[in-house]
Amino acid sequence: MPIDDLWFLKKRDPATKKPLPSKRHGRGKRWRVRYVDADNDDREKLFDLKRDAEVFDLACRSGVAPQVQVKREEARLTFAEYAQRWRESRESGWATETRRRIPQNLRKHLLPVFGEKAIRSINLTDVLSWLGRLLDEGTQKSSVSLYFGLFKTIMNAAVIDKVIPDNPCNSVKLAQILRGLSRAPKWVPTSDQVLKLVDVVPRCFRAAIWLGAGEGLRLGEVLGLEDGPRCADYDRGELHVVQQLRHSPTHYGGFYLSTPKSGSVGTVDLDAVVAEELTAHVANVGPVEFELPDITSGERLTRRVAVLFTSSRGKLLTDTYWSELWADWREAAGWPKEGTFHSLRHFFATTLMSNGVEPQEVQKALRHANLRITLETYVHWLPKKDRPRGLVGGLLRQAGSERPEAPTDQDRS
């Protein structure tokens, strides 16, 4: 909040070294204080005497001037309160998956950290500390980007609404923070560790483990599998990954079918061993039929679905219930805490890669959007091939010996 002398310029006379008079010299009030008011707008106030300008400037800097004082209710507004207003004002235009995902990410990842804080008090250090904790806990880069993007969007809205003067997220270079982090999985089970898991998992879920380890399916895709040719064609040896099971208490009555993550719909080869396990599962355990909303086509329809994997009581599985089951199986199999169902997908990918399957084929099997994702994640498992020494030079020399001799200068003359 600088104090400006409107009667004199900052430029000085070369001879006298005194400030040069301005066009306003001797007219009107001489001293100007520039400040930002409570609504975050740039303001100025003029004074005849410098000491009065200094007193007002100090009051603005200390926050006691009425012009800069924020209303008590605005000063106490928490991030949780504003985030609630932000969500309610926008969710009518969101797609179903967005209406499920954003409240969940708010509840699980933003409100525990920032919820009780006054939104005006959140600063750059708070944001960087939060990001640091996420990375220390091993949170995936894509998830960190997702949570930070949501937080930044809410804080940007708060700036527009003049709830806060600026957004501390704008000073965070997230790409630079994440650039040094690898996509490579922190832990991948061995074949023996996968088989130990198979041994401890109840019979009704054993085929699910094989689908993760032998086909690279994600958990939601496994839980969304249904009996019949829509998902598995045993005659052609094909597995159609066209849907996943989702659960949202506020939409579609809870459970519904949607397309796989990032639209990764695809048909992949059905491994013979996995096919045997699926056939045995259908024969010994059997599917359970449910009336489920299906939005995989872009429109909602309700149909009967013969779901392959349910609880021991024949109920559909939520992520929370699955996590409880998984924790027991993981401990019994001797897996580390880093071992999740997604680790089976890593096992599938790294097994293909380390056994010489072309990266493009691995990408297709995983249904990644592009080859870059596959390589950034699993490049360390590419088989190393020794390059022969002197290969290029030898080839050039051989090619030169096979060329007709060029005419010499003497021949040209």
Task: Describe the protein's architecture and organization.
46% of the residues lie in helices and 14% in strands. The longest helix is centred in the middle third of the chain and has 20 residues, at 141-160. The model has no long low-confidence stretch (mean pLDDT 88). The strands form five sheets. It has a three-stranded antiparallel beta sheet with strand order 1-4-5, with helices on one face. The radius of gyration is 33 Å and the shape is flat. The chain is an alpha+beta fold. The protein contains 17 helices and twelve strands. The protein has three domains: 3-69, no CATH class; 79-179, DNA polymerase, domain 1; 191-381, hpI Integrase, Chain A, CATH 1.10.443. The chain has helices at residues 50-62, 72-76, 79-90, 96-114, 124-136, 141-160, 174-179, 191-200, 203-215, 219-223, 272-284, 319-333, 342-354, 359-366, 371-378, 391-402, 409-412, and strands at 3-5, 8-12, 19-21, 31-36, 42-47, 232-233, 238-241, 244-248, 254-258, 266-269, 288-294, 301-307. The termini are far apart.
